[in-house]
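Q: Got a minute? One more chain.
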Amino acid sequence: MVKRSKFTITEGISLPLPSAEDLRGRQSVRATFKLSSRSIEALSIVAVHLGIKQKSLFDQLIEDAKSLSLIAKEIETAEFHALNRIQKTFVISRKTLRSLEDISREFNAPRDALVEYSIQRLLPVITREREKHHKRKEILRDINAHFEQGLKILRKTRELLGEDDPVYAGLENAMGACVNARDNIEQFVEKCEIIEEF
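A: Always. Here it is, folded:
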């Protein structure tokens, strides 16, 4: 076992130093796989929807050696070869690629199939997020109805009290904050429409 060097910050506090091998494992490399268009789209949708870089998502799915081994044991290669596949290059970490190649070799499982079925683990995430998206749209409709009611009250306040009244000024500020919140929510819901089309 290799003994790690320590870095001392102050007296009583020392931290292990990262090894050159660990750091090299995080280097980005390009790797090309033949995958179904559905898997490619699923990876892209989850990355966009959850605001995660595709590389980070890919690394998280493939670096999980335990799950990858389970997938490798269960792969139906005939079923996998029946899929229409597209060649696609991804940026992944060197460590992820090494893990993928090790499992592929150990279980004599096609590398592309390991990636394909690893990505399919995202499908339940997409289903749950689609359900949440429908609820967000419903809430946005409620917000818009609330906003319209607020505008009516603001107009009535202006007519009854005038624009120089403190109540009108307070209500106008509140409506301004409401507009910003509503616009941000609306933009998020629009950005997530991609999940409904999957």
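A: Residues 123-161 form the longest helix (39 residues).
Q: Perfect, thanks.
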